[in-house]
Amino acid sequence: MADTDPWTMLLRAPRARDAFLLRVVMGGPWSLLVADEAPLTVMGQLQGNAWFAVEGGEPTLLHPGDVVLVRAPVHYRVASDPSVQPSMTIGPDQSCTGADGRELADALAQGVRTWGNDPAGADRLIVGTYRSDTQASRLLLGALPPALVVPAAAPELIGLLNRELAADADAGVLDRLLDLVLIDAVRTARAQLTSGAGGPVGVALRAIHSAPAQPWTVGSLAARAGVSRSALAARFRHEVGDTPSAYLTHWRLALAADLLLDTDATLDSIAARVGYGSPFSLSAAFSRRFGVSPRAFRTRGQAEGRGADLAG
């Protein structure tokens, strides 16, 4: 039987190709609104601190070594303080405009793969984006919550990536280091979201992971965790970055994708194993998430090989 743990799948999925990588150096009160629509962004706090928040969400303070994973189409803010309004917007293809609409990308360039408002700024981050969904794998994107803050995920790797960026290393070297940062963050998140998670959110996560076919609702998960529906929903969104229902859907569809690639199980069987009442409901949800039907996904995987599909 195939390993149906999506975390195992995620750890072998990413493979960047000429990823966009930049050191961001900021000083004084500052705030950026990021709306670049990148399939997956990996942001590591290198020095100082920054506040991260998805649009409409609660801010989280980032410390050196923390990693943030953000997938499209989430827009988010990064700032020296949550009260500071964005003075710059990062758009598609790494365009940068000020509040008055002026293009600022060239004006804020600070040397080799470095950008910001102050070359001596105390707040420093590394930002890497996967340019297409096939590079990070649609499976990975489907299983991750829209935004995930992973504390102390990869301090050594972030430091190494910073040094290689400063030396303007070969793109292939930088791509592999970005992959390693992502893999380390996913590995750390796995520990936090499974065996290492505590409290009501940990109980809910373990229930979802161990029995995805169960007809879980926020109410049944809250009852399992011993808290109210509203309390679980609020804590789950704060700690995981998604609602319990949306996370359950992501988990089920990642399992379904893995079973399609690794087994010859029928769609009826897969639907039952991952909690869908019929192959038709699974097919509709799968197509919405991955942009292709389960049948087409399996056919392509068989033609190209699983490794090629994941690598993009």
UniProtKB/TrEMBL annotation:
<dbReference type="InterPro" id="IPR050204">
    <property type="entry name" value="AraC_XylS_family_regulators"/>
</dbReference>
<keyword id="KW-0805">Transcription regulation</keyword>
<keyword id="KW-0238">DNA-binding</keyword>
<dbReference type="InterPro" id="IPR018062">
    <property type="entry name" value="HTH_AraC-typ_CS"/>
</dbReference>
<dbReference type="InterPro" id="IPR032783">
    <property type="entry name" value="AraC_lig"/>
</dbReference>
<feature type="domain" description="HTH araC/xylS-type">
    <location>
        <begin position="202"/>
        <end position="300"/>
    </location>
</feature>
<keyword id="KW-0804">Transcription</keyword>
<dbReference type="Pfam" id="PF12852">
    <property type="entry name" value="Cupin_6"/>
</dbReference>
<dbReference type="InterPro" id="IPR009057">
    <property type="entry name" value="Homeodomain-like_sf"/>
</dbReference>
<dbReference type="GO" id="GO:0003700">
    <property type="term" value="F:DNA-binding transcription factor activity"/>
</dbReference>
<dbReference type="Pfam" id="PF12833">
    <property type="entry name" value="HTH_18"/>
</dbReference>
<dbReference type="InterPro" id="IPR018060">
    <property type="entry name" value="HTH_AraC"/>
</dbReference>
<dbReference type="GO" id="GO:0043565">
    <property type="term" value="F:sequence-specific DNA binding"/>
</dbReference>
<protein>
    <recommendedName>
        <fullName>HTH araC/xylS-type domain-containing protein</fullName>
    </recommendedName>
</protein>
